[in-house]
C-alpha cells in the first residue's frame, strides 16, 4: 500500500535545547475567567481546563501559534493513501513525570483506553473510528482505522488525546482526575478551588522552562483580574475582558494582543422540551436577538455575528446566512406556535462577568417579544454537573444554555459532530440541544468516511445548512481573542481555539 510521508522540520528540538536558560526564573501567574473542572484530558469538555493541562500533558502532535500541526511526542508520521492506516515514529528518551518510559506500549495503552466505550470518556469521539493499534517496535506504532479519516492527525493534536502515564492510571484509576502525570515541561503540584499549580520539570525532554512554575488562578470578576495584572499579582491574562481593552492599551507596562479565533458563542435550546420542540419558537428566538448588538454590548465590538454553526477560520466552513433582527416576525412566529403572550424559561451558564452580561443581554432581547427569562449564573463545577449529570435527555433540566465552542482540531468535524450528532447527547458529548436529524447524522458520517476534501466539504455544507434551518441554537457571534501581558514577559500567547501556550514563558528586563 502506498504511503504519503509527512515530515516535520528537523532540528526543531535541538535548536530549542541549545538556547540558554534564563538565570532569574520565577513562577508565572496567569489569571483566567473560570475554575478548572477536572484533570483527565480525555474526559474534559472545556477549553480552559484542557489548555491549562498542556503544561503537564502532551500529545503525539500539537499545534503552533498559527494552528499548524507540529511534532511533540511523535517525530513524524506516515499516512496511507486511503487514510485508513497511520504509522507514528515516536520520540526516544522521553519519560513521564513518575519515571515511566514513554514508548509505543504507552501510546497503545492510552489510545485503547480512550477508544474503549466502556470507559465513557467524553473525548472518545476524537478517535471513535479506531479499529486497533499495533506496536511495530518500541518507538513505532501503527494505527488502523475502521474507515478513512484524513483528519486523524488533527485529532491527535487535540489536547483530548494527550498521553497519560499508564502507571499513574493503573495506580489511581478514576482518581487520575486529581493526579495528572504527563511528559510536559511542568509537573503537577496542586489543584484546590481556584488555584492550579505546576512546577518546572527539570528532566524535560526538550528545552527546560525559563520560569520556576505556573500558577493559574481563577478570578471570575473582570475588573479584579485587570487590577491584579496592574498590581503585578498576575503577569498574563488570556481571554482578557473586551470592555477593558482601551484602558489596558493606555498603560505603558502592558502589551495588548488581538487576533481572530475559532470560537463561536451560541445559546442551545433543548428541542426535547416545550416550547423549544417547536421550530417556530426556535426561529422566533433567533429573529428576536440582535446579533450586531450582541457583539457590541457583550464583546465591545471584538466579535462578528455568526454566519454558520462553525466560524470562518475552521476548515470546511460554509456561510449559510443569518437570522436578521426582526422582533415583529419573532412575535408572529410565537403567536403561530400558540405563544402569543410569550412564555417563561431559564438560561444558565457560568458566573463570570462576561457570561453574566451575555445572559442579561439575552434576557433583555427576549423580553421584547414577551419571553421572560430567568438568568442563573453558576460556578463552573455546578454548571458542569447540571449539563453532564443528566444521563438521559428526559432527565436533563436544560432549557436555554449560553455557551461557546472551539473545535480544537481545526477541522469542521469536531466543530459539528460533538454538537449536533444524535450520538453526542450529554453525558457523551456536548449536544445540549438534544438535537437529532437523520440527514445531519448521515452527512456527519459521510464527512469522516472519506479523505477526499471535496466530498468532506460537501458533507459539512449539508450539515451547516440543515442545522441553520432547524435552529437548535440561537446563533450569536464569533469572537476575537484578546490577551494582555506585562511587557517583561515574553513567549506566551493565545491559540485560535481560545486556549493558550505557556511553554516559552520568560521574564526579561528584570
UniProtKB/TrEMBL annotation:
GO terms for cellular component: ATP-binding cassette (ABC) transporter complex; outer membrane-bounded periplasmic space. The keyword Transport applies. PROSITE patterns: SBP_BACTERIAL_5. It is found in: Periplasm. Residues 68-423 form the Solute-binding protein family domain. It holds the Pfam family SBP_bac_5. One of its GO terms (biological process) is dipeptide transport. Residues 1-23 form the signal peptide. CDD domains: PBP2_Ylib_like (cd08499). One of its GO terms (molecular function) is peptide transmembrane transporter activity. InterPro entries: Peptide/Ni-bd, SBP_5, SBP_5_CS, SBP_5_dom. Keywords: Periplasm, Signal, Transport. Its main location: periplasm. Gene3D superfamilies: Dipeptide-binding Protein, Domain 1, Dipeptide-binding Protein, Domain 3, Periplasmic binding protein-like II. Belongs to the bacterial solute-binding protein 5 family. Part of the ABC transporter complex GsiABCD involved in glutathione import. Binds glutathione. This is Glutathione-binding protein GsiB. It comes from Bartonella apihabitans.
